[in-house]
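Notebook, p. 212. Picked up where the previous page left off. The plan for this session was modest: take the two constructs that came back from the sequencing core last week, fold each one, and keep the raw output in the notebook itself so nobody has to go hunting through shared drives later. Recording the first one now, exactly as returned: residue sequence, then the C-alpha cell string.
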Amino acid sequence: QGVDGDASVHDRVLWALHVSGMDDLLKFLASAQAEQQWALHVLEIISLMFRDQNPEELAALGQGPAAAEHGEDTQELETLRQRELAEKRARALQRTSRHSRFGGSYVLQGLKAIGDRDVVFHKGLHNLKNYSHDLGKELRRVPRRRQVAP
C-alpha cells in the first residue's frame, strides 16, 4: 500500500515516457507537416496522457503557493530596492559637489619651529612620518667644483 503522495501507475508511466525522451518524439510528430498520417494516433496518446487530470488543476499548477511566495519575494525586494535608492539620494544630497582639498592643520607639540613656537603642519596626518624642516624647500644647486667628492 502506498502513501497519499505516492505516484500512481499512470504517473510512473508518464515519467518513464519523459525520461526516455518519448514525449519529445510525440511533440515532433504532432508538429511536423511530413508526419500528418500520425496526427490522430498522437492526439489519442496525448488524450490518454491527460486522462485523469483536472483542467483547473493543470492551469493552476504553475501558479500555486510557489507563485504566491515569488510574488511576496518580489514585493519585498522592490521595497528594499526603493529604500536603498532613497538612502543613496539622501547621501548624495548631503555631499557637496566640490571637493575640499583642505586636509586640516595640526600643531606638532614638542617640535619647535622658528622661535619658541610649535610647528604647524598643513598636510594630512599620513604624511607626518615623512616630515622634516626642509619639506617644501628648494635644494640649492652646488657648483660642480664645490661639490664634495664621494
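Okay, moving on. Second construct, recorded in the same format:
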Amino acid sequence: LRLVAIVRAILEGEKAAVLKRDHHLPLSFHRRQEELKFSLGLQRLQHRVREIKALQDEGQGRDGAVQSPVAPRELPTLILEAVKELEAAKQQVLKRIQIWKRQQQLAGNGAIFEENLAPLQKRCENLVEVYFQLQQQVMAASTELGPELLPRLLERLKEVLCSLVRR
C-alpha cells in the first residue's frame, strides 16, 4: 500500500507538471476518460438489471405468486433507479453523438476528423440491449408496479429509445 501511495503521488506530480506546462490535457485523454465513465455507468446499469431479475426470481413462487413481502417495496425502487441510470447513459451517448456531428462539420473546414463510427455504434448497441432487458423486467413486474407507475415507466423507456433513434 505504501508503494502504491508513492507511485500515485509521483503520477499526480507528473500530471500537475503537464497541466502547468500545457494548461490542458490531450484530447485523447478526455476521450478515454469519457469512454471509461460510460462503460462504468453501463456496467452499473447492467448490474442493476440483473439485481431486478434476481429479485423477481426470488419473489416468484411455483404458482407465480409473490412470496416475499420485501419484493413489492424494493422492486419499484430498483426499477426507478435503473430507468434513471438508463436516461443518464442515454444523455452521455447523445452528447457524444453531438460532438461527433460537430467534428464532422469542422472537417468541412479542414479540421482533423476521425470518421470511425464503431465506438459510437457499440455504445448505442449496448444501451439498446440494456433498454430491452430493462423493458422486459418492467413488463414482468407490472403487477408489483401498480397501475399509476407502470405507464409512467413505460413512457420514460419509450422516450429513451425514441430519442436515440431520432438523433
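Notes on construct two before I forget. Residues 62-71 have pLDDT under 50 and may be disordered.
Flagging for discussion at group meeting.
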